[in-house]
Specification:
The complex is a heterotrimer of chains A (248), B (287) and C (110). With 287 residues, chain B is an alpha+beta fold. Chain B contains ten helices and eight strands. Among the domains of chain B are: 57 residues, no CATH class; 120 residues, Protein of unknown function DUF881 (Alpha-Beta Plaits, 2-Layer Sandwich). The chains are: A alpha+beta (248), B alpha+beta (287), C mainly alpha (110). Chains A and B meet through helix 2, helix 3, helix 4, strand 1 and helix 5 of A and helix 4, helix 5, helix 6, strand 1 and helix 7 of B.
Chain lengths: 248, 287, 110
């Protein structure tokens, strides 16, 4: 730093000597520190890249996580009560009398028939009368309705004259709503069996079914009921391709 | 002047003159400040360089190092306070999910045992055939048969990814609706069998089927007449929808006909509120 | 050597203290790091050309970081923050590369 006064170094040899002087005191330590810094920079870069690529639970907002936790907890709880029911059934079959076993079998048959939509059903729930003089129903509106009702715990649903089950589908033909291939003329009634309070709450959600019916110039009248009857039946056809596989 | 002698010598003839800006960007001279201060010091009889031992330099070096590591740390964990609650939530979700999966397996075993016990009953009160038919229709049985497996996945993230370039719950709802309308007998999404009470919903960016968050890719497995299902998924309205997903949103769609698709049984199949009124007709009676 | 130790000391200090950066400051951090790196390489090049000056170095670091932050701020206000950030990264990146090239020329003659 003293002898080169006035003449800037031009030869590489000169510059090298300068570098050596800069780092000579402890070459290995200097190298280590430099390596450490590059590690820090590299780490920061790589973690940022990874964060951008990872789409898992970590990517959800906190409110979504809370909702999701609610869902999975609900799932675990309902599964537990299902287990308790099945265990009671098994006990009845193993130890109980013939009558008890028959009772258990009948209860399970009934539950399955209710879900399959092959029996009429009664219970508490809500009735909605949907009027939309101009029509204008879209399949997505009705799909949303089904999802909202099911999510609110509806066990049996009837739209107009049609029982809604797992394989029910929504379509639009010539501007008319079609449920499971059957035309549903406006105005129609929707009956859902389940907890009336939860169901009514689900229907009142902003942007939900009631709102979208209002959006097409119609209106929905909702009535709670303690004893409603869903009497439309789903014609269960023998599946032609799906055959039961005994669980191992 | 000093910095760009060539250009000053022949401003008009230099064919690279129009590239001066580019050249300056690509090959910039040393910060003019260094040059002028070095000259000043030289004139004052001092060494050109101040050397690397001044307090000012050490302080600024420390500050720079500080900036570096703080930046690295901050960008690594964007929000440490929020991160811990998130972590806790994530852990609880995963734990509850695991408990649920365990219970599903338990339910499977219980159903199998009950079925066997049922068969051993000397005088069944309920017609076993009726019981089996109802279980099949409700989705309480594992089923297999010819069908189609449709796989959807989000496009890989790129710099210009749009937020909507993802598979949405709406997409699955529309596809499932189309499949039911065209010959599907049973459907499962990522091993979640769809029943009368099944929901396909959205929690932020996660798709939730029957209260279970799904991991990508989304696999819609369908049993039904293969030709009819394929026709709908290729050229029907669902096919059009899939084409749009592919072309407009870059979603990866894969359609695989299979001779043997196996779908698991649904797990949550008890009813609590609904009862069957006495003497109610059933559709079996009708037919 | 001493500045290098200082740099390392700063890194360690940051790791040990790990201060919480306010949210509004976060968008500026990457750009600030790039700008500081540009100044550092400029300083190394100046040292190799025997014209290093500590005041010039400090001023160039500060002004680089400030201007870069200003551009990001302006971009955010105008709603084109990411585009302007990209521009800053491109320009500073080019400067870093050319400064490194100059350093390389001095050290290896190539």
């Amino acid at each position: 730093m003293t002898q080169v006064q006035g003449t800037p170094p031009v030869s590489p040899r000169h510059a090298w000597r300068r570098v050596l002087r800069l780092i000579r005191p402890r070459i290995s330590a200097g190298n280590l520190l430099a390596a450490g810094i590059t590690v820090v920079i590299g780490f920061a870069l790589v973690t940022q890249v990874q964060a951008a690529n990872d789409v898992a639970l970590d990517d959800l907002r906190e409110t979504d996580l809370v909702a999701l936790l609610d869902d999975v907890t609900k799932r675990a709880d309902t599964l537990e009560s299902e287990i308790r029911l099945l265990e009671a059934d098994r006990r009845a079959l193993e130890e109980g009398s013939g009558a008890e076993a028959g009772e258990a079998a009948r209860a399970r048959l009934t539950s399955h028939q209710i879900l399959a939509g092959t029996v009429a059903v009664e219970g508490s729930g809500i009735t909605m009368t949907v009027a939309a003089p101009g029509g204008g129903f879209t399949p997505t509106m009705m799909i949303d309705l089904m999802q909202e009702l099911r999510n609110a715990g509806a066990e049996a649903i009837q739209i107009g004259p049609v029982r809604v089950v797992a394989d029910s589908w929504i379509g639009i033909e010539d501007g008319t709503l079609v449920v499971d291939g059957e035309q549903v003329a406006v105005p129609f009634r929707i009956i859902a069996i389940g907890d009336p309070h939860t169901l009514a709450g689900a229907m009142a959600i902003p942007g939900g079914f009631s709102d979208s019916v209002r959006g097409i110039g119609g209106n929905v009248q909702l009535v709670d009921g303690e004893l409603l009857v869903v009497d439309a039946l789903h014609r269960a056809e023998e599946p032609q391709y799906a055959r039961p596989v005994p669980s191992e | 002047m000093r910095l760009r002698p060539r250009r000053a010598a022949a401003p008009d003839q230099d064919p690279a003159a129009s590239m001066a800006l580019l050249r300056e960007v690509m090959d910039p001279p040393l910060d003019p400040g260094y040059a002028s201060s070095a000259e000043r010091r030289e004139r004052a009889g001092l060494p050109r360089s101040t050397g690397g031992r001044t307090v000012l330099l050490v302080v600024s070096a420390i500050l720079l190092g500080f900036l570096l590591s703080v930046a690295a740390q901050t960008l690594r964990t964007p929000d440490s306070a929020g991160a811990t609650t998130r972590q806790e939530l994530t852990q609880r979700i995963e734990a509850a999910d695991a408990v649920g999966d365990e219970r599903v397996a338990q339910i499977d075993i219980l159903r199998g045992e009950i079925g066997r016990l049922q068969d051993q009953q000397a005088t069944p009160v309920v017609d076993p055939a009726e019981l089996d038919a109802a279980a099949l229709a409700a989705g309480a049985t594992k089923v297999a048969g010819q069908g189609v497996v449709l796989t959807l996945n989000d496009p890989p993230l790129s710099a210009d990814s749009q937020d909507d370039e993802r598979v949405l719950s709406r997409d699955l709802q529309v596809i499932v609706n189309g499949l039911w309308a065209h010959g599907a007998e049973a459907i499962a999404i990522n091993e979640q069998r769809l029943t009368t009470t099944s929901t396909i919903r959205f929690a932020g960016q996660a798709i939730v089927v029957d209260l279970k968050a799904l991991a990508r890719p989304y696999e819609v497995a369908v049993i039904g007449e293969q030709e009819q299902l394929l026709a709908e998924l290729r050229s029907g309205s669902t096919g059009t929808y899939l084409t749009e997903l592919r072309s407009d949103y870059g979603i990866l769609v894969d359609l695989a006909p299979q001779d043997e698709v196996t779908l698991p049984a649904a797990s949550r199949l008890s009813t609590r509120v609904a009862r069957v009124p006495d003497g109610a007709p059933t559709s079996e009676d009708d037919s | 050597m001493i500045p290098l130790i200082g740099l390392a000391a700063g890194v360690i200090l940051g790791l040990v203290l790990s201060p919480t950066v306010p949210l509004w400051l976060e968008p500026y951090l990457p750009i600030a790091v790039i700008a500081a790196m540009d100044a550092v390489f400029g300083g190394i090049r100046a040292a190799l050309e025997a014209s290093f000056n500590d005041k010039v170095f400090v001023v160039s670091v500060l002004s680089n970081v400030l201007v870069a932050a200003l551009i990001v701020l302006l971009g955010n206000q105008l709603g084109v923050g990411s585009q302007l950030s990209t521009g800053v990264v491109v320009v500073l990146g080019l400067r870093i590369f050319s400064n490194v090239a100059a350093i390389r020329r001095h050290l290896m003659g190539a």
